Amino acid sequence: MNIINKYKYILYLKINIVIIFLFFSNNIISNIIFHFDTHAIIKNDINKIEKYFEYCNDGMIKIIRFKKIKNPKISIISPIYNREKFISRFIKSINNQKFQDIEIIYVDDNSKDNSINLIEKYKKADKRIKLIKNRKNKGTFVARNLGVLVSKAKYLIIPDPDDILSKSIIKICYKYGEKYHYDIIRFNSYRGNGKYTNNYFCKFQNNFAIYQPELSTYIYYGNFDLQIIDSYIINNKFIKKTVYIKALNALNNFYLNMYMIYMEDSLMNYLLHRNAKSMYFLKKIGYRYKRSSESITTKIFKIPQTKIKFVFTYFKFLFEFSKNTKYEKDVLNLRFSRILNHLNIEKSLLNNDLKKNYYFYYHVINSIINNIYISDENINLLKNYKKIIEQKII
Q1: Is there a contact between 66 and 127 (Cβ–Cβ < 8 Å)?
Q2: In terms of C-beta distances under 8 Å and separation of at least 24 residues, what long-range contacts does 351-359 make, across chains too?
C-alpha cells in the first residue's frame, strides 16, 4: 500500500467513525428528548387530573339534567357497596365528561349505607342512570358482570366509584375504537398521589398495539411492570361488549355465580385477553386510582385466610382454562409457586391462620394436583400443604 492509498484508507475510516458516532449520538439524544418529553406529558396529565379531582371532591355538585339515551355508544358500569362518601364525587366526574352519549349503570350490591338513596336522587335528574339492586351481597365479580349483561352500548368501561376518569379519556377511546377497531384500549392510570416517579401504573410511554396470539398470554410474558397492573385491575380498559360477553360465555356456572371480591379483575383480564383480537396501549393517563383504607381490597389484605382463599380460587381457574402449550405451562407454574411462597402458605397453615378454610384448601389442592398442567415441583409443594391440612383436620 503506497502512501497515498494509506491516507485515503485512514480518511475513509475517520469518515465512517464520524458517521457512526453521529448516528448513535442522534439516537441517544432523540431518546433522551423523547423520555423527558413523554415524562412531561404524563406529568402534565397527572397535574390536570389532580386539579380535576380537587374540583370533583370540593363537595359542590350541581344537579344537571340529562335525557335518556336510546342507543348509547358507551356503557359506564360501576358496582357499588357502601360507597356513599364517594358517589357524589364520582357522578360529578361523569357529568363533566366531554363525551355524553352514554348510559351509567350502578349495581348496588346490597349496601348498608346511604348509597342507594344518593343514586336515586341523581337518577331523577339524569335519565341516563340505571340502578340495579341486589337483594343480597353477591360480590364484585357477579355485580360487575350483571351490569355488563343489562348494558346496551357497543363499548364498556368499568370504573370503581371511589376513583375518577379524566374528562377526555372516554371521548379519546371511542375515537380510537371506531377508527381502528381495537377490541380493548388500555390507557395509563396512576395511584392518586400526584407523583409520577416509580408509579408502575404509568410505565409505558409510547402508543402501541398487540395482537393474537401474543395477546392471549400477555399477562404472563409481557413487560413485567405492565403485567402487574394489567393483571390486577380492569378499570383502565375500554372494552368492546362483544368481547366481554365471549369471556363470560367461557365460564361455567360455578365461576359465573362465584362470590369473589379479590383477584376478580385478574380472572376477567385473563379471559378478555384470550377472547380479544387486539389491544391498544394509549399512553394518555385516563384514570386516577386511589386505594381507600375503607375499600374491600385494603381490608382483605389484612385478613390472610380471605386473601389466600381468593388467590387459590384464581389459580384453580387458571389451571382449568389454560391452553396446553409448554411455554404457558412453564410460566403459569412459575407464577403459582412464586405467589404461594410470597404469601408463605406453609407458615399460615402451620400456625392455624387458615383454619377456617382448611376444607376449601384441601378440595382446591386436590383439584390442582390432578391437573395435567401442574409441574412436579408444584405437585410436591401442594402435597406438603395437603399433609399439613390432613394432620390439622385429624
Answers
A1: yes
A2: 352/392, 353/304, 353/305, 354/304, 354/305, 354/308, 355/305, 355/392, 356/305, 357/305, 357/308, 357/309, 358/389, 358/392, 358/393, 359/393
190 touches 196 (CB < 8 A) = yes
C-alpha cell at 310: 381468593
- What does the block give as the cell for 292? 381507600
Do you find a cis peptide bond into 304, omega within 30 degrees of 0? Answer: no
What percent of the chain has pLDDT above 70?
76
Contact 46, 75 (CB under 8 A): no
Residue 335 burial (10 A CB sphere; 0-12, 13-18, 19+): middle
For the stretch 343-373, pLDDT in tens is: 788 888 888 777 878 888 888 888 888 888 8
Residues 278 and 316 in one domain: no
Are 316 and 330 in the same domain?
A: yes
Given a contact cutoff of 8 angstroms between Cβ atoms, the answer to whether 158 and 106 are in contact is no
Q: Is residue 53 part of a domain?
A: no
Strands 164-165 and 278-289: antiparallel
Residue range 244-281, pLDDT digits in tens: 999 999 888 888 888 888 788 888 988 898 899 999 98
- Shared-domain flag, residues 326 and 292: no
Residue 309's domain spans which residues? Answer: 303-393
* Residue pLDDT, tens place only, 36-78: 444 556 777 888 888 888 888 886 777 788 988 899 999 999 9
Asked whether residue 82 falls in the same domain as residue 223, the answer is yes
> pTM for this structure?
0.80
